[in-house]
Amino acid sequence: EPPTRPETARENASLGPDVLADRLAKIRRSGDDIERLGALAALVQRVDLRSSALLRSEIVDRSSTWRPFDRLILLAAWARFSGEAATRWAALAAPKPYRAIALELAMAAWARSQPEAARAAFERDHAGDTAAMAGLVAGWLESDPKGLRAFIEGLDLSLDTGQHGVAVYVRRLIERDGTAAAEAWAEGRSAVWNPRRTRHLYRQVASELTMADPAAGVAFCERHCEGESGGAVRQMVSTRWSMRDPTATMAWLLAADDADPDERRYAVNAGYGNWMRAAPSAALDWALDQDPALREASWFEPVVRRVARALEWNQAEEALIW
Prior knowledge:
- The protein has 20 helices and no strands.
- The chain has 322 residues and is an all-alpha fold.
């Protein structure tokens, strides 16, 4: 391996507080947002523990001209060295418009270096906070995957925070290891969990799978939607898939003749409702092209109701037919 060039070594060397302060002052004067953010992100990669106090002062100084995204970059850097202090500032003092993302960033950085300390602080101070949960999961997965898995498997999935923790865990697991890893973990839990707890899990898994890969979400549903832990799984797939491809979503639901009628109706309500909100003209045209006999099916009722409502102002007779 060739030796590192002297100028490259200087470019990658850690910066002391004095040099960092000077560089920050120059970057702060940049009026181009993208240029400033890029330079700031590159700069903080070269910061070490010596500059922790300087980073803190730049963040907490309310008279500073740093903009919100600038402060978030500085916060992420500070939290690498002072996770507890950075997390406390994010939770209590960060400006409200970006307090949630600040808390998530700080908690993630803390969990990457000290997962058990971050967990203890989460359980003590932030147990109901979904942003803190998201950060804890993201950072902990990088530092101690086995410890995180044990924590996730112990969550109360009847609570919003527990469900959010599982959702973030599955999302990050998919990003790192692919959809098959998330499916294998979830399906492995069904062997030891009761159906109600598994049902909460499967709903979150179906949602995250579909966002990452609709085909994986559909396949997961085909395996589990009609099982005793499959309640609302079809609805979750429909909700997520319809945001990307409502035509394909509705075609899938039209073909789901073996589905439970109530579960099918809930899924149609979610999918067609999303479509109507996002592109009402296209959703209406699709419905008007369907076989009129579908209007008698109980599971198709959400479409009938929404179409009639859309037509009642300027096509009253057609609305009555629907």
